[in-house]
Queue: 2 jobs
Job 1
Amino acid sequence: MGAQVNEFEENMASFLNVRHAIGVASGSDALLLSLHALGLGHKDKVIVPTFTFFATAGAVSRLGATPVFVDIDPNSYNLDLNQVENILKKDQPIKAIIPVHLFGLPVDMQHLGTLAESYGLYLIEDACQAINADIPIGSSSSVRLMKAGTIGHAGCFSFFPSKNLGCFGDGGMVVTNDDDLAGKIRLLRVHGSQPKYFHKEIGYNSRLDTLQAAVLNIKLKYLNDWTYKRRLVASVYNAAFQSAGLQGKVKWPNLCEGHVFHQYVIEIDTRDDLLHYLNDRGIGAAVYYPLPLHLQECYRYLGYSKGSLPVAEHISKKILALPIDPELTQEQITYVVNIISEFINLTE
Ligand SMILES: Cc1ncc(COP(=O)(O)O)c(C=O)c1O
């Protein structure tokens, strides 16, 4: 909680154009503290995509609430908003929704915001993979761009080293425009203590380290440039796949507006074999995520069966993340695509 933490909070609030930015110990804690501060707990149900990093649902469960898993759209890999609407129409008393801007691609927050408002739900954005993603908000006559994480009641960020803005260990942040919510989260991160050693709430030890904040203050200056370069890398990959004639064999992502490409993911039928082929040749491809959350062992008690959320189940078998980094060169990208081409020629 040193001076660099305050400085970083101010820098982030101004970068994201939001009233409050509160440093916490991790992205997982950012979710946990947001949900806690909004009063979520036992008997509450929270809509969560089944295809995300575990922390999104884990935070819900840690507070004694129940995640309601929803399938994803097969193209964006984000929450299928038609299914969200169908669940809300049935009179399941849902209290909140956590949209995840997966791989750096924003959820349609205009649509989701309208839904959340009409059903009186809290909206907590999991923007851990989507820092600096722009989202259009407003009607066609007056659209403005807002940053991912700043549209819902609270937005959560992770600064884990592999993130688009990463520190040298763990770190996270909650952002909000709600003064009361911000005050509560500031309290919760220091065991509810105010003044020191007098505890208003039962909270957590969830400070952002001063050392990490110092690193983040420097790195934040480069984020716009890095974001631009990530999009450039994605476009070079796409062009390389196109010119290698891999349409119909590999599905690669659209260069959607606002996408910050935390991951660059392709789909291919022979995913597991390709993964080994790439890894054997020193290419750090990886699978995010091999098993949707509704089928995880720890959620067996919720009673979801195989086939209940088929899009995520299907995608989890086909998806493969290729190396992406602002520093990746054209030569390295061509090398990766050439190896994929070679693999497809060998296995066809
Ligand atoms: C979508 C998503 N949510 C939450 C988290 C949790 O962040 P952290 O690892 O900082 O706890 C992550 C990071 O791994 C993530 O990718």
Note: The pocket of pyridoxal-5'-phosphate is lined by residues 26-28, 52-53, 55-56, 100, 126, 128-129, 158, 160, 170, 172 (CB under 6 Å).
Job 2
Amino acid sequence: MSKVLITGGAGFIGSYVCRKLLEMDHEVVVYDAFVHYISPLKSILKEYTELRFQGIADQIDFRRGDTRDKAHLRRVILETRPDRILHLAALPIADLSNRHSEEALTSILEGAVNVLEVLRDVDFVKRFVYISSSMIYGDFEEIPAPEDHPKHPKDIYGGTKYAGEVMTETYSRRYGIPYSIIRPSAVYGPYDVNRRVSQIFVENALLGKQIMLYGGGHQTLDFTYVEDAAEGMIKVMFHEKGDGKAFNITYGRGYTLRELAEILKTHFADLDVKIVEEEDVFRPKRGALSIEKAKSLVGYDPQVSLEEGIKRYLEVYRDLDVFKNHL
Ligand SMILES: NC(=O)c1ccc[n+]([C@@H]2O[C@H](COP(=O)([O-])OP(=O)(O)OC[C@H]3O[C@@H](n4cnc5c(N)ncnc54)[C@H](O)[C@@H]3O)[C@@H](O)[C@H]2O)c1
């Protein structure tokens, strides 16, 4: 049995990791600042933290704290003595990172370096897992993109995530900190509230609103169901062969936004889809990532196709009052 401290553990992905770790009988400490990235006045699903932790909240040691507050972070790590740290806490959205670049730098980079600074001085943490992003690659030059693909991030989010990777490797080389790096992509599923494209499409479909396909809907993403992403993070965190390496943790297949809209149309025949040719030129051109390394070294085996993931997402949301009243 391990004790895992998850920075950003109260978030969308973190909550699924918490649930899985508890099912495996591990102890869980969540270190989280409980940040709202979307104005509470605008968010449709207001009670998302309760929903994420229904049935498990009392089994978790929740510590409110900001990774930018190094002294407090150090105190909590020394008090709780975890043997693994999963570092998810970060400003998680590319658009917001460009608009709030100062916050992106402190939240993504300084936060990660602060954890590494504490880890210089302790020997009880057996693995630090840094959650990066597939945005570090920039435009994909090879599809599926392997982990050694060139790193040419096109925006502040990808650049700061990549800087965090470099610092993780540097601290490890200099101070012997055991680490893994994980690059997820387009994670989706119930209780994401950061208004990524999958959430906007699913919620608009449920509310009978139009969905817009920018760039003609040709943008391709490796959509990853949140349960697969959480499972992959746990596999990397505990596996001996996860040490000192970077892994893509995605579904391993690219779907265009048009294909996502088509999947939704199988559930909502009247879905109103508008094609808009205009596109964001700073959005990297992406597609599938290679997951062969994670499959062969740590036994990662994602199970949920986009068709199945959307079905599961809708099954959960159709029961929520906020959407039921619109159906
Ligand atoms: N969701 C995706 O598609 C995706 C893809 C690639 C990478 N990631 C990365 O995964 C991580 C989690 O993303 P998510 O989708 O669960 O986002 P989320 O916003 O749901 O969760 C992030 C959590 O981190 C907390 N947090 C943020 N800054 C903090 C700080 N300075 N100190 C303490 N807590 C802080 C927030 O309160 C929140 O609970 C992020 O690092 C994100 O960049 C996500």
Note: The longest strand covers residues 27-32.
